[in-house]
Amino acid sequence: MGRKFIVGGNWKMNGNKAEITALVDLLSKASLNADTEVVVGVPTIYLDYVKSIAPVNVQVAAQNCYKVEKGAFTGEISPAMIKDIAVSWVILGHSERRQIFGESDELIADKVVLALKYGLKVIACIGETLDEREAGKTEEVVFRQTKAIANKIKDWSNVVIAYEPVWAIGTGKTATPQQAQEVHQSLRQWISKNISENVANSIRIQYGGSVTGANCKELASQPDIDGFLVGGASLKPEFVDIVNAKQ
Fold first, then answer.
1. 205 and 161 in contact (C-beta within 8 Å)?
2. C-alpha to C-alpha distance for 186 and 173, rounded to whole angstroms
3. Which residues are designated catalytic?
4. CB 31 within 8 A of CB 58
């Protein structure tokens, strides 16, 4: 059985109630590929609202959560809270969390562990910076980031990996389909060797980084690209085209 294509929209810190209502309405009226799983990453304050209005074929994700269940961590949310409002997904380890907020590989791995414990499905983000790519360290970085998670979990059935080259996020630059496929293939081979062949064959690896309606079909045609994690374009009508990219 093939891996089910999965497209995530990461709204980041964007939108107000009116804009979000219009966006959900667009998705509700659109003809979305039934063979593609669709998840939208929503600002925390709107999670409950979007969950209440989203169509059944669009799932909802938190954009982050902390590594403990509760406590004196002002401004954070826990996996238990996400689960309590019937949201089933969380995005963890996004490059903006790593770069801007200084989250380490170990912290992200700890977050993944607790999120899985509470029954959440996790989109775990990995990816290299431009300096790291130019220094020929792409594989070293993505393998290290994946290994941090692999050191702490055994069951990968509720994990999706999102490979997002940092240099391609919000820059308009996109890895060529060949560049993206090369990293996805190498990562799958690393997983086969270091985790298990079964996990390597079954785990879905998304590509993220300036995915648009114009480039999504060629990217989707690559054998090891199992979906997308989309930033800016997920706030636009072209998100529908991206959801429907897989032929």
1. yes
2. 21
3. 94, 164
4. no
